[in-house]
Structure to design on (744 residues):
């Protein structure tokens, strides 16, 4: 079975890339699943992950072999015809958790899986599952090198999202963290055979480079971020790669980075062969809201004013859709620079204008007392919130301040990673949106305990426990609850200290796990303080040689990836380089989450945008909140956490989408009506995939995420898991009787 891709459409049975194809449209040509028979879809088979982890993994399927993440972070190759495991590469803790990259040579003799593991780039033979020792240096590439910083000071650079294959290159983003002095997010390309660095694009320009004058002169030495942790899109025919570049650090205070800050918050088009800049558009100047674009840019053909335009569309967190000629970068639909509020925070210089797409916004952009939810809060709480919102500053691009600012979309609102798809030839963009507010309030950064002096062994130091409590309130309480008892967004941490040591906690914080995103601005000493608060024991740096290695059942061929040497101890950057006019004090805020159900529903929506006419074709709630349903509510969407879902668009007029209510939906592409839905054994995050065997298509949904619900969670202090069962990959297809005689 061979898959062929022409332009934006894939024919055949493979899902070779994260997102299906280089253009990330998730559009599939098929004929066996139609609007008329989609109601007959049923579960064909399942592959249990055999653990309790929540995965965001998008499977890769090539020539009847499906590669998934399961069994305690092991890569597993499965024959989709016999449904038996071919090989297992076990214990890849710290692996890219949203997907991997697949590459094969033109003659098909070499096949490789490429991925990041903690801060290394590695390759596995796709046929054998074993590490390729000739790749890089003894099987790995150290991604901390080549960033213009002491590699020992780079605490994290690995991204949770896979890169993009172009020829014999792997184009790679990064996720260096969001704190002061995090590493720069330069874009790099590596040779898939040797691991050699092919090119680098400096997202924080260096002296003499375009955009250098949009920063303070020495900013490239200490500012971090401006990285690509989201989804890279490739126009393979033209050799142009499109990057949604994220915000600079620190996200909410920029007194040490005055200026517009190119190439942060840009849609950036590079020559995929050389890394040369072709064009860019900055969607947020001097970002103070963490409004970094992350969703895959979509390549479409737009017919406007009698012209046919090859376009690229970027949907954003702040609820805008920007559309450009994909070659020239000229706007297809108008964009207007508008004056926005100034900042009154000491040292801050907010940019005076911001770009507004004149297309209809896809999200709410102002928090108003009259928009409070009629569900899940009582009358007293509603009165308190009305008063709080009335006192807060609000409105799009209102800067965070020393008083509370109410912002919608917030840090995880709008359109996020995984949330875009397209019918490319028809010029229709599909996107998911979440109206999730954030409440920000800047405070002076508390630097207590940043330097050493921790008690690494023995009973927790009371001072460390207090420091941990302060840090927990700043960085963790919004999701896990003020009392550590859990919320709808995250589980309880009341007993985790007895089950986890420093290495495991460090890995979880730096690289993320399941629903928890990586958090790179918390240093090792602070992690030790958090462990002291949680009741943990000895706190050792680096990999824990005593941590048990558990081998899963099945055909294990290797474990742990390429052998890694212990990381040499280094000192994270904590002060500005000599001679830099640093701000007298730094400010921080948490992400202001914890109120996902505060605004009136719908909380999450699926939207079809006709970019030929520049209008929203239809907009429907995505999912249904169970507690609100019990209270009589309808068409709510789901407010629980970030909308990390994905879609598949078919040539037969169906848009498949996962949702946070634990269901898999089929929408009519013409009007948004629900054609079919099915319960999953657990919740789902990440992108579904599709493959074909003998003319029959199979849709794969990763269902491994526990579901939590509002009323139960608020009453018990912990999330209430969905009772349907353990997690796994659920594969749907049409029963043979629905396909006709020619399919039997």
């Amino acid at each position: 079975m061979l898959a062929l891709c022409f332009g934006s459409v894939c024919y055949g049975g493979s899902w070779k890339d994260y997102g299906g194809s280089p253009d990330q449209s998730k559009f599939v040509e098929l004929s066996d699943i139609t609007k008329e028979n989609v109601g007959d879809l049923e579960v064909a088979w399942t592959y249990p992950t055999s653990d309790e982890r929540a995965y965001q993994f998008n499977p890769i399927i090539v020539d009847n072999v499906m590669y998934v993440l399961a069994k305690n972070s092991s890569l597993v190759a499965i024959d989709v015809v016999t449904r038996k495991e071919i090989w297992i590469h076990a214990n890849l803790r710290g692996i890219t958790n949203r997907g991997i990259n697949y590459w094969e040579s033109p003659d098909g003799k070499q096949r490789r899986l490429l991925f990041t593991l903690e801060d290394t780039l590695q390759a596995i033979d796709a046929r054998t599952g074993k590490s390729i020792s000739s790749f890089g240096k003894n099987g790995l590439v150290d991604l901390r090198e080549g960033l213009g910083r002491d590699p020992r000071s780079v605490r994290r650079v690995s991204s949770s999202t896979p890169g993009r294959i172009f020829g014999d290159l792997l184009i790679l983003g990064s996720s260096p963290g969001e704190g002061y002095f995090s590493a720069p997010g330069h874009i790099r390309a590596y040779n898939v055979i040797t691991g050699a660095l092919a090119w680098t694009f400096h997202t924080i320009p260096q002296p003499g480079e375009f955009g250098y004058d949009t920063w303070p002169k020495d900013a490239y030495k200490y500012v971090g971020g401006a990285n690509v942790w989201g989804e890279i899109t490739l126009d393979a025919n033209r050799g142009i790669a499109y990057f949604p570049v994220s915000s600079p650090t620190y996200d909410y205070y920029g007194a040490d980075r005055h200026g517009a800050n190119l190439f942060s918050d840009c849609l950036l088009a590079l020559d995929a062969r050389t890394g040369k800049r072709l064009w860019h558009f900055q969607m947020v100047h001097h970002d103070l809201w963490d409004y970094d674009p992350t969703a895959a840019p979509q390549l479409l053909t737009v017919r406007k004013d009698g012209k046919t335009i090859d376009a690229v569309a970027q949907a954003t967190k702040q609820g805008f859709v920007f559309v450009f000629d994909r070659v020239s970068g000229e706007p297809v639909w108008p964009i207007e620079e508008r004056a926005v509020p100034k900042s009154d925070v000491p040292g801050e210089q907010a940019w005076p204008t911001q770009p507004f797409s004149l297309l209809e916004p896809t999200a709410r952009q102002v928090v108003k007392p009259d928009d409070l939810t009629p569900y899940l809060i009582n009358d007293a709480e509603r009165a308190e919130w009305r008063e709080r919102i009335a006192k807060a500053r609000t409105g799009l691009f209102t800067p965070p301040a020393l008083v509370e600012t109410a912002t919608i979309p917030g840090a995880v609102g709008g359109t996020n990673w995984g949330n875009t798809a397209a019918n490319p030839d028809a010029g229709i963009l599909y996107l998911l949106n979440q109206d999730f507010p954030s409440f920000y309030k800047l405070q002076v950064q508390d630097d207590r305990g940043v330097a050493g002096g921790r008690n690494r062994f023995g009973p927790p130091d009371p001072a460390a426990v207090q420091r941990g409590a302060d840090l927990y309130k700043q960085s963790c309480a919004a999701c896990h609850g003020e009392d550590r008892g859990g919320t709808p967004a995250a589980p309880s941490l009341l007993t985790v200290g007895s089950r986890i040591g420093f290495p495991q906690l460090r890995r979880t914080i730096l690289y993320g796990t399941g629903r928890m995103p990586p958090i790179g601005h918390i240093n090792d000493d602070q992690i030790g303080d958090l462990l002291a608060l949680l009741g943990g024991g000895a706190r050792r740096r680096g990999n824990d040689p005593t941590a048990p290695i558990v081998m899963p059942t099945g055909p294990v061929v290797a474990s742990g990836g390429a052998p890694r040497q212990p990381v040499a101890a280094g000192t994270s950057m904590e002060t500005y380089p000599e001679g830099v006019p640093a701000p007298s004090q730094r400010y921080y805020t948490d992400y202001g989450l914890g109120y996902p159900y505060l605004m009136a529903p719908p909380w999450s929506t699926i939207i079809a945008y006709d970019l030929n006419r520049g209008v929203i074709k239809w907009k429907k709630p995505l999912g249904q909140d169970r507690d609100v349903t019990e209270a009589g509510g309808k068409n709510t969407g789901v407010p629980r956490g970030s909308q990390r879902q994905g879609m598949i668009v078919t040539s037969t007029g169906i848009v498949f989408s996962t949702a946070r209510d634990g269901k898999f939906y089929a929408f009519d592409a013409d009007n948004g009506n629900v054609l079919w839905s099915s319960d999953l054994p657990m919740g789902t995050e990440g992108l579904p995939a599709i493959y074909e065997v003998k003319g029959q298509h199979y849709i794969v949904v990763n269902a491994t995420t526990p579901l939590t619900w509002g009323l139960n969670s608020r009453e018990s202090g912990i999330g209430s898991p969905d009772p349907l069962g353990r997690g796994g990959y659920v594969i749907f297809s049409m029963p043979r009787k629905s396909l006709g005689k020619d399919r039997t």
About this structure: The CA atoms of residues 336 and 356 lie 5 Å apart. Helices lie at 379-391, 462-475, 477-480, 502-511, 524-534, 626-630, 710-716. The chain is about 10% helix and 30% strand. The radius of gyration is 24 Å.
